[in-house]
Amino acid sequence: xxxxxxxxxxxxxxxxxxxxxxxxxxxxxxxxxxxxxxxxxxxxxxxxxxxxxxxxxxxxxxxxxxxxxxxxxxxxxxxxxxxxxxxxxxxxxxxxxxxxxxxxxxxxxxxxxxxxxxxxxxxxxxxxxxxxxxxxxxxxxxxxxxxxxxxxxxxxxxxxxxxxxxxxxxxxxxxxxxxxxxxxxxxxxxxxxxxxxxxxxxxxxxxxxxxxxxxxxxxxxxxxxxxxxxxxxxx
Length: 235
Known about the structure:
globular; single chain
């Protein structure tokens, strides 16, 4: 099956977690919105009233299925491409971890848009600074500390033990994204999470991921996505 991924063409965003899973699995997919007329196709699917139209991207077309929400897409792909445990309890655990990552992603976004996406960053700078300071003081230690502890407890190199799952790929993206958005803050914090740093490096060295990162399929981080580098927030 050749999948169709629908997401905004110029940012990594939430679609990147799906791209990483597809690339690691080595399965064929089309990044539809990056092709000619792709955005129009994506819009038409979201405006549909019949079937199971998605609310917003990312969403994945797999045959006749249209699957929305990042964690939901990964739940589907993980069980079909060896990126999740086979047992139900394990699949649910990995899905739970991915939902926790989704909460973290939202908090990362809110560091630069604490008053909402309808306002430009420049219209909410003071609030963004307060939100970012609180995020690094309390939320980053809580989230990354949680995943660091899980890695230490498993002792197998990956978040669930000896086999990589899509959660490991997502944690790679979290570490890389925080390095881009907050290089100074992250450099100082990384000494507290050596396990996550090592996991990031193991993911980056995997053949399919290494090839993806070196290709033009990997969109560069930029100030339109979730991870944004504003110097005043990284002080």
